[in-house]
């Protein structure tokens, strides 16, 4: 093998290794950017949790501000999980999957809705009920599509 081929091959492995490391970091990062999901509902604030109070749920790590918050979450996790798996609610209303800022949130009827940023949160607030109806419809379609894809993969 020529020296150039060896260098190119080594570069490819280094590049691929860096990509895998980035994906692993994302997978290991706490959900909601480390913000306590209970605080959104209980206190209407975005409060950073700590490593001292962490819980694994559905493959995600959630951080909490206290043992009481952990206990509340463990008693009813679904109550404290944000809509649309934490994706931007306004984006979901448009049928798009946008990452969200855990500090740009709104609690409506006991449910957490996150948005991409503070400006999008303001836009979402202009017609919250309308956007939620649209987002719910898009989310249902996305869930059905993902379920169908998983079932198709299982048959292979």
Number of H/I helices: 7
* Major sheet attributes: 2 strands, antiparallel
Give the terminus-to-terminus CA distance. 38 Å
Note poorly predicted spans: 18-26
Q: Outline, from the CA principal axes? A: globular
Query: Strands of the biggest beta sheet: in what spatial order?
Result: 1-2
Mean pLDDT: 88
Structural class: alpha+beta
Total count of strands: 4
Nearest-angstrom radius of gyration? 19 Å
Order of helices and strands: HHEEHHHEEHH
Give an overview of the whole structure.
With 156 residues, the chain is an alpha+beta fold. The chain has a domain at 82-150. 56% of the residues lie in helices and 17% in strands. The chain has 7 helices and 4 strands, in the order ααββαααββαα. The chain has helices at 3-28, 37-43, 67-75, 77-80, 89-93, 118-125, 128-155; strands spanning 50-57, 60-64, 101-108, 111-115. The strands form 2 sheets. It has a two-stranded antiparallel ribbon. A two-stranded antiparallel ribbon has the order 3-4. A hairpin with a 2-residue loop joins strand 3 and strand 4. The radius of gyration is 19 Å and the shape is globular.
Summed up, what is this model?
This protein is of the alpha+beta class and 156 residues long.
Provide the fold topology:
Blueprint: H1 3-28, H2 37-43, E1 50-57, E2 60-64, H3 67-75, H4 77-80, H5 89-93, E3 101-108, E4 111-115, H6 118-125, H7 128-155
Antiparallel strand pairs: 1-2, 3-4
